[in-house]
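User: Please fill in residues for this 471-position structure.
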């Protein structure tokens, strides 16, 4: 088990134990305050069927809310303020949910008493959970400050700006645990002579990161134009590592900034997406629930399509193909077969186009109304895909795209989708040039990821399906 998984497990176990304790203390409190009906003694109340079941069920339901909050996604280097706010919001949500589900029968005629019950539960839940979380976070922070827990980083830029950033990092309280293992020369920069760490050539960056187990790259150029800086960042995307940059240089490239920390020099994360951790988890749960419901409702459609495909042409009903997805994981994407079997000669990948002779008669309608995509809901349930996300491609085409636009690798930071902004705004691509054009929409989606934008894309997709503009 990795250190990150162990730390996450500490938070999960801590939350479960503290939530169980909080629920038990709340039951004791509401009994002694007279908010419980029909029980003469404390023992009869605590051993009653509803209370015993609730002692098991409600802490588990609370854990689901904690998961949705995104608290467990990033186990290290947590913001104290953010931890406080997330814990408070989770306590509020759990309290109102429990009140509606379990305590509705105990509601008194007096509104004041009802408010007291809610606030008591909220207070007990927040205090119990927050104290345990704070202890775990403080222990982790203590290890980081003492150098027991470190994260290897490279500073890209060996000039005056990069060295000055390194000195500020060394002189400040190291709450982020950066262990700078070296610097990287940038073209046109004058290397600072006082650097006492290894300085690497930019062309050797991939091997350096692997050899030093680098977890982050920090870009601090001294003198670079916007064009030069973009060229540097394009090459850094090939590392598939988090890329951070100081805000003064980032402002040359973008108007938006997302700070990764506020201690010492704030850094901007230019390789991640803007969706909150809670939003990511809510998106995943919504993906699974909606996909499962849709698959059940569409069983008759699946059966009819399967029969039509079998009648129309020889070959399997389901077509599968390897694609590259989340975190560069290779998976099989599933579709209803819309082409003749062995459509690609000598296994050489070929893109389809309008009036492609390989498309079967039934396949033409399947593609037009996007019915061929329906089996991909299984990919969503499995975790390979999302309802909304960049279109997954084959490695054959990825290599060609990356050679011309390395920023494509950013799409692997999110799950690929059945539909996407690129699909609704551009459509199918019949060449690498068109793939690159569609990529601009997918990168724009990643930069502006939100649940609201996902809903908009789904609405547009439904419109395309109903109007038959799938091809």
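Assistant: Residues filled in for all 471 positions:
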């Amino acid at each position: 088990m990795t250190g990150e998984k162990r730390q996450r497990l500490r938070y999960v176990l801590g939350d479960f134990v503290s939530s169980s304790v909080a629920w038990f203390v709340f039951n004791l409190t509401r009994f002694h305050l007279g908010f419980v009906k029909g029980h003469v003694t404390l023992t009869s109340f605590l051993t009653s069927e509803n209370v015993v079941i609730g002692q098991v069920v409600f802490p588990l339901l609370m854990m689901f809310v904690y998961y949705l909050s995104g608290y467990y996604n990033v186990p290290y280097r947590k913001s104290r303020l953010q931890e406080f706010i997330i814990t408070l919001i989770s306590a509020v949500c759990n309290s109102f949910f429990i009140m509606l589900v379990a305590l509705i029968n105990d509601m008194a005629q007096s509104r004041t008493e009802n408010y007291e019950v809610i606030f008591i539960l909220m207070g007990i839940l927040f205090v119990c959970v927050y104290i345990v979380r704070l202890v775990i976070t403080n222990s982790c922070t203590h290890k980081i400050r003492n150098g027991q827990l470190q994260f290897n980083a490279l500073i890209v830029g060996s000039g005056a700006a990069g060295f000055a950033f390194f000195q500020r990092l060394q002189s400040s309280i190291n709450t982020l645990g950066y262990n700078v293992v070296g610097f990287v020369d940038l073209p046109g920069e004058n290397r600072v002579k006082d650097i006492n760490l290894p300085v690497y050539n930019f062309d050797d960056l991939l091997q350096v990161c692997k050899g030093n187990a680098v977890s982050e790259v920090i870009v601090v150029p001294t003198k670079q134009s916007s064009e030069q800086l973009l060229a540097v960042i394009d090459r850094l995307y090939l590392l598939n590592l988090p890329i951070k940059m100081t805000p003064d240089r980032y402002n040359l490239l973008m108007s938006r900034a997302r700070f990764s920390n506020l201690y010492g020099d704030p850094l901007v994360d230019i390789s991640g997406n803007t969706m909150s951790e809670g939003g990511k988890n809510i998106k995943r749960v919504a993906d699974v629930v909606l996909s499962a419901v849709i698959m059940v409702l569409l069983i008759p459609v699946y059966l009819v399509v399967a029969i039509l495909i079998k009648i129309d042409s020889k070959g399997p009903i389901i077509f599968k193909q390897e694609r590259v997805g989340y975190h560069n994981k290779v998976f099989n994407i599933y579709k209803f077969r819309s082409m003749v079997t062995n459509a690609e000669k000598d296994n050489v990948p070929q893109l389809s186009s309008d009036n492609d002779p390989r498309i079967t008669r039934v396949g033409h309608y399947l593609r037009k109304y996007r019915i061929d995509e329906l089996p991909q809901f299984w990919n969503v349930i499995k975790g390979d895909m999302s309802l909304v996300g960049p279109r997954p491609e084959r490695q054959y085409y990825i290599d060609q795209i990356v050679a011309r636009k390395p920023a494509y690798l950013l799409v692997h930071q999110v799950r690929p989708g059945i539909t996407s902004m690129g699909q609704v705004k551009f459509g199918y691509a019949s060449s690498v040039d068109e793939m690159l054009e569609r990529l601009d929409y997918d990168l724009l989606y990643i930069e502006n990821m939100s649940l609201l934008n996902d809903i908009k894309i789904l609405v547009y997709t439904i419109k395309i399906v109903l109007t038959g503009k799938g091809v």
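For context: Strands lie at 151-156, 178-184, 199-200, 216-219, 243-245, 268-269, 318-324, 330-336, 386-388, 417-419.
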